UniProtKB/TrEMBL annotation:
Single GO BP term: amino acid metabolic process
Cofactor note text: Binds between the large and small subunits.
Catalytic activity reported: ethanolamine = acetaldehyde + NH4(+)
Enzyme superclass (EC): lyase
Keywords: Bacterial microcompartment, Cobalamin, Cobalt, Lyase
The protein's annotated pathway: Amine and polyamine degradation; ethanolamine degradation
The encoding gene: eutB
Lineage, broadest ranks: Bacteria, Pseudomonadati, Bacteroidota, Chitinophagia, Chitinophagales
Binding positions for adenosylcob(III)alamin per the UniProt entry: P194, Q245, S295, M401
EC number: 4.3.1.7
Chief place of localization: other
Annotated compartments: Bacterial microcompartment
Family indicated by similarity: Belongs to the EutB family.
Name of this chain's protein: Ethanolamine ammonia-lyase large subunit
Amino acid sequence: MSWRHTIHHRSYHFSDLKTLLAKASPHRSGDALAGLSADTYEERVAAQMTLADLPLKTFLQQAVIPYEQDEITRLIMDTHDATAFAPIASLTVGGLRDWLLSDLADTATLRQTAAGITPEMAAAVSKLMRNQDLISAARKMEVVTKFRNTIGLKGRLSVRLQPNHNTDDPKGIAASMIDGLLYGSGDAVIGINPATDSPEAVISLLTLIDNFRQQYHVPTQSCVLCHITTAMQVMRKAPVDLVFQSIGGTEKTNRSFGVSLSLLEEAYTAALELKRGTIGNNVMYFETGQGSSLSANAHEDVDQQTCESRAYAVARRFNPLLVNTVVGFIGPEYLFDGKQIIRAALEDHFCGKLLGLPMGVDVCYTNHANADQDDMDTLLTLLGVAGCNFVMGVPGADDIMLNYQSTSFHDALYIRQALGLRPAPEFEQWLIQYGLMDQNGKALPVPSSHLLLQNYL
């Protein structure tokens, strides 16, 4: 099926669904690099107007990547919940946008509808929305997950404490970890990107975090962001809480990461059997990012934002505790400047939440992108308003191992204080108990005699 739309006596032709979605996307460097974006602003508007009139049922009849060619397409089609879809089945993409912004789409209704929305539907409707629309709709969506604490409640914002070190030095990691905890970071996860992926290094880092967690009764979870096969290898030798994996929106992308749906299923089952969660058993941590499929030459001529939404179908299958879009990490070839990074982050957060996922955002950029910390301050504030589940906490906002710019412990304090947001409730009580926060959520000064400083460093 193809579509045409005429503006000022000029007819624009869209040969298939993936072309229509690509041409309707707000401009970004990755789609231009791939030759997928609209050639003019007028063509983009023509595509958006065409997309607005498209019935949602079209996405159940046509696939952007053929069913027999891609296991993620098969996952999307085979697991679609017709009952959840029924209340919105008569809508067009434009009608879905209007419904999402109406009072009819409240938190409970959106939760019930999530399983009936496909990633392509989510991507399509986001292409018709302004930034304020993405924020307004997303803030109504509450996705709550649990392991040792409760993440995603309204009025709460969690932080991944990211104590990376370029040589995996235990003292350097411990110093960063304690620094973050003193500032109230770490309730999403204490998560380390290891400098090496060897089982020995992963075991050492997991043991370091877990020993500290148990010694001070910290109600949080740990993760070393190694490859999923390494995590499976060390599960019976080390305290594995969460299993991590980067994922993409096409079968080819995931193959480039060395994973498949069957491998993810195997790891998920094994992690569940460990039963390390105390109040819940969401055991997976996924990271994504617009441009990952294109950078692997695995995008199948699908625009990068639609590919990103398709990655959320993979995440949704495994009931994760955390999903993190590392929005500006890949570089300006995919998201050129601060404006494109901000837009992409709001899209990712909205689409993930619409599909029922516990979305966090790594508010970040690389040093060769046309972006700076002011752009990240703006994005962090917008995400706080939008109800983002978690952000990153990196010492000084400068990751010395991954060499990119993110958000600091102070940034997390800023957004919590500015918007009246609190940590996860169990973690908040721990902060109060240890004299790091008062009952009103205010961070307290830390004396040099504090227990965390005296007994560990």
